[in-house]
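Hi R.,

Here are the chain sequences for the assembly we discussed:
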Amino acid sequence: MNQRNPAISKGIDWSLVGIYLLLVAIGLTAIFAATYKEGDPVLQSFLRFKTDYSKQFFFFLIGGGIALFILLTDSKFFAATANLGYAFGIFMLMLVFPFHSNVKGTESIIKLGAFNFQPAEFCKIFVALALAKYLSRPETDFTKTKSQFLAAAIALFPAAITILQSETGLALVYFSFFLVMYREGLPSIILLIGFAVAALIVATIVIEPNILALVLTSIAALVIYALRRQIKRNRGLLFMILLIWALCVGVQRFAVPYIFKNVLQKHQVERIYDLFGKDNPYEQVKEGIKAEDLKKKKESGTSYNVRQSKIAIGSGRFFGKGLLNATQTRYDFVPEQRTDFIFCTVGEGFGFTGSMVLLSLYLILLFRIVTIAERQRSTFSRCYAYGVAAVFFFHIAINIAMTIGLAPVIGIPLPFISYGGTSLLTFTIMLFILIRLDADRQMVLR
Amino acid sequence: MPVFNQSRSRIIRLIFLLVFLVIAGQLFYLQVVSGKFRQMADDNAILKKTIYPPRGIVFDRYRKAIVNNTLTHDLMVTPAQLKGIDTLFLCRLLEIDTAEFRTRVITGIIKNSSQKPSIFEASLSPQKYARIQENLWRFQKAFYVQERPIRSYPFEAGANIFGYLGEVDTNYLKKHDDEGYVSGDYAGMTGLEASYEKALMGERGVQYLIKDNFSRIQGSYEGGAMDMEAVAGSNLYTSLDIELQELGEKLMTNKVGSIVAIDPRTGGIIAMVSSPTYNPGYLTGPERRRHFNELYRDARLPLLNRAVNASYAPGSTFKTLQALVGLAEGVINTRTTFSCGGAFYGCGSAKPMGCLDPGTYYLSSGITHSCNTYFANVMQRVINNPKYPSIDSSLRAWNNYMSAFGLGHRLGVDVPSERKGMIPTPEFFNKQYGSGKWGFCTFRSVSIGQGEVTATPIQVANEMAYIANKGWYYIPHVVDSIEGGDKFGLLEKYREKIRPINLADSIFEVVHQGMLGVMESGTGRGSRVEGINICGKTGTVENYYRGVKQPNHSFFAAFAPRENPRIAIMCVVENSGRFGGTYAAPIVSLMIQQYINDSIDNRWKPRMESIIKTNLIPKMMVDKMRQQDSIRKAKEEEKGLKTELKNISDTLQTEDNLSEAEARVSMKKDGKPAKDTSKQKPSPKDMILPDSSKKKMAMGRDTAKTDINQ
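And here is the predicted structure of the full complex:
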C-alpha cells in the first residue's frame, strides 16, 4: 500500500485535521489567558517551556510528531496489534498500583521524570481498538447475548481498574463505548433500561425515599390494573411486573444508599447531591457536625467550584469580556481552570458567541466522525470511529455540562482544550489513528 | 456488514445534537438571560479602594501650624505566611509574650482571614519602629510596616479646641448617610475637627483594583480609567495665638476653670483654655485607647470643654450689663447715687444682700467697688418701671437687653457643644411661682449675677467684646478663613456684625470708666498692669452643690486697652475660694500683657510662677479622684500579681514558634497550676467599650452641671 501510494497525504480527511488544529489553537489561547499574569515575559517563557501554555505547545509539537508517525504507519498495523495493545493498556493500568505517585489525591498517575503520566487516559485508545477488533471479527455474532456481554466486559474491565484508583470520572468514560455497541446492534431495550435506571437513581436522590417507594408501588398497582386481562391469560406477566417493582424498590431503598455509603467516596456523593441542590443525607448521620459547618464546608467545596464557574461563564454575557479582561478566570476564582474548568475561560472571555462557536466546532467534529464512520467499508474502522466519537462526545458533554452546573463535577478534560499532556496526546493519537484508517477506507481490515 | 443498523447512526447524531442543544440552552440562560452573574463577578473581582487624602492643617494667627499630619507606622501581619518566622525574637522586639502574639494573630485571622494582612501592632512607638525596621528582613512576607497618617500637634496645647478624631460608629454613619463614610473611617468627633469636618476631610478618591480569589491585589481595573483622584483637606487659618494658649494652659495648671480671649474687632477667638486639659497628642498614636479611657474616667472631666460647655452664675461681672440696661432704660443716669449702709434692704424683711464697702456710690464707682446695693436698686427700678404695665413686660424688656448682649442663647461658636446659659424670663417665674406670685424681690440676687442667671465663659468674654466695641460684636469663632474658600458656608455667620440694639456711646463710656476704676482703685487693683489701660470687672460667685455651699468661683472679665480694645477676656477659677480679684484677675492680667506686649513684665514673673504652682483643685474632685485611685490601685495590684504568675510560667517555656506555643496553651489548659494565668491573658479593663464609658461620662457630666449651676 505504501509503495503504491507514497504520498502520505493521500486520502487524508483534511477537515478533521483543520478542526483539530483550530481546537488546539483555542486551547492554547485559553490556557494562556488563564495563566498569564501582567508583565510576564511571553516570548522568553514560551521558549523555555516554563509556563503552562508553552508546555502545552510542547505537547502539541510532540503530538504532531506522533501524528506524523501514525500517518506513516500501515493501517493494518492497528487492527493487527489491537489485542496486544489492549493487554499492554491493562498492564499499564496495573503498573499504577505499585508505582503511582500521589498527585492531588488521585492514585492514577505515574511520574516519569518531569512528566506525570496517566495510563487511565491512554487506555481509552487501546479499548477503542480492541473493541473494534472484537466486533469486527467474522466469528463474532453480535446478536448473541454472550458476545454482547464479552464486548461490554472488554469496555468495562479498565473502568473497574480505574475505579480502584479512585478515578471514577475517568472510569465513567468507558461507559460511552455502549454507543459503539448500540450502533453494532445492541438491542435498544438495553439502552432504555440504562436510562430507566439512571432516572430511578435521580429520583432516589431528589425524592424522599418513602414517598418514592409509595409512588413506585402505586405505578406497579396501576400497571397491574391496566393489564389485568393479559395477566389473566398469562400469569408470568404479573410475576414480571412484581419482579420489576421489587427491583426498583430494592435499588431505591437499598442499592443506592449502599453505593453512596460504601462504594463511592464522600466527595463524589457530595458532588452528585450538589448538582441537585441537596445536602448529602449520608453525612448528617455523623455526630458532632453542625448544620453550619456543613454549610461552610459546602461553600468552600465543590459547589464553590461550580458557583464560581457559573459566575465566570455567566459574566461573559453575549460577547464576552475579551480574553485578558476576564477577571474571574484570570484571577483564580475558578479552581482547576486550566484543566477541567478551562471552558470558563472561553465562556468569560468570549461570551455566548464564543461558547457557541466552540460548541459548533465540536458538533461538526462529532458529525464528521460519524459521517466518516459510516463511509468505512471495514467494520473495524467503523467501530473504531464510533469509539472515537463516543469518547469525544462523553468528554465534551460532561465537561461543559459540569462547568455550567448540569452534570456532577467529575474530573475529565475537555478534548484538545484542557491543559494536560496526557489528555492532549491521547486525543491526538485517537483522532489520527482514525484519520489513518479513513485514508485506507477502501480496504477491508480484519 | 449489518446494514440494518445504519439507521442508528441518525439516532446517535440526534443524541449528540440534543445534548448539545441542552448545553447551548443552559449557556444561553447563564450568559444572555440571567444578568446577575456580571454583578457577582464584579463583586468577586473588583475592589473599590478608598484613597484617604491628608486632612487639612490648622494654623494659628501667626501662620504657625498647630494641628498637623504625621505618619504613624502600623505593623501588619499576614497570618498565612507565618511559617518559619522567629516568633520569639519578634516578641522580644515588641516586648510582648508568645501568648499575646498568638492572641493578636488569631484576632487578625478572625477579622480579616489568614490570607489578608491585619494590624498586628498599631502606631509603633519610635523605638519599636526602629527596632522592627532594622530586623524586618527576618520577618519578611508575614510582616510588613504600613504607613498611616495621623494628627500631630507641634504645640502641646489647645486640645479642647481642636477636638479629636474617632472611628465612626453606626449612628454617625446614619447621620452622615451620603457623605461617603464607611465603617472603620475616622472623622472629627469634637472641637474644630468636628465642626470643620467637611472642609478638613477633603475629597476621598476611589481606586478600582482587581483582586484574586484570596483578595490579593492584582493591579488596577481598566487601567485606572474609572479612578478618582483624592483632594487634600483644606487648611484652616485660625485667630488663635498658640503661645497665648500655652500660657493660659500653664496658668491654669491644677485649677479647674477656663480662660476665653476674643479679639473684639473681629470676634476671632485668641485663646480658649479649659482646665484641666490634656496633651492633644494623647488621643492619637499608639496609646490612644488607653489615654482615652483614662481621660474619660478622670473625675476632673478633662474632656469637657468648660469654655463653652459649662455655665456659671456670672456674679459681679454681670453688674456691667445691669449698668447698661439701667442707663438705656433711663431709670438712672451717670450722676445717680445710691448709698449702701452695709446691705440692700429694699426688700424689707427678706434676707438683705451684703455690701463690701459701705458708702455712697455713683454708677462708675459702683462698678469699681462692685456695690451690690447699687445694682439691686438699678434692677429694681428697671423691673418696677411704671413705663411697663406689668412685671411680666418689664422683665421681658430686661430679658431682651440681655439677649442682645449675647446671653441666654447659644452664640453659635464654631467649637461644638455650646451651652445656652440662662437669663430668666417671665414664663420661667410664672411656672416656678405661679402668675402674679413673684416680684423683683423674688429674684433680687439676679441683679448682681447670682441666682437664676447663668452664662458660659464664652458668653462672658463676648459680653466684654460687646462693651469694648460699644454696642456690637461678631459671633466668636476660632477659624478666620479656609484655604480655597468657604465652600460649605461654614463661616458666613461670623462675617456679620451683630448690633441688636442701638445704645449711645456715652452709656458705654460710663461703664468703661467704672471698669477702668476697678483696676486703678477697685476690686482688681492688685492686678493693674503698668502701661496698659485695662477695663475689668471682678466676680466672686457663690455656689452650691446639692444644697451645700462650696468655695466661691473666682471670676474676672476685662478688655484692653481701653482706648483701642484689642482683647476681650474672661477667666473663671472654679471653687477657688476668696475673691475674683485673688486668682482670676492676675491670670487675666498676665494674659493681656503677653498678648499686647508680647512679653511679661519682670515684676510679674514671680507672681506668674506662684500662680502656676497654686493648686486649686476643688476638694470634692480630689476626694473623688482619690476614691477612683484606690479602686484602680486594688485592681492593679491584683493584675500585677497575675502577670507575675504568668511571667513565672513564661520563663518555663523556651519554645519559639507558634505551633509550639499552641501546644503550650493546650498544655496549660490541661495542666492545673497554669490554668488561671492563661485565662487572664487579655486584660478586659483596657478594652472597655466606648458605650459603657460614654454612660459614665454622661453621669459625670450631670454631676458637673449641678455643681456648676448652683
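The longest strand of chain A covers residues 110-112. Residues 14-186+308-439 of chain A form one domain.

Let me know if anything looks off.

Best,
T.
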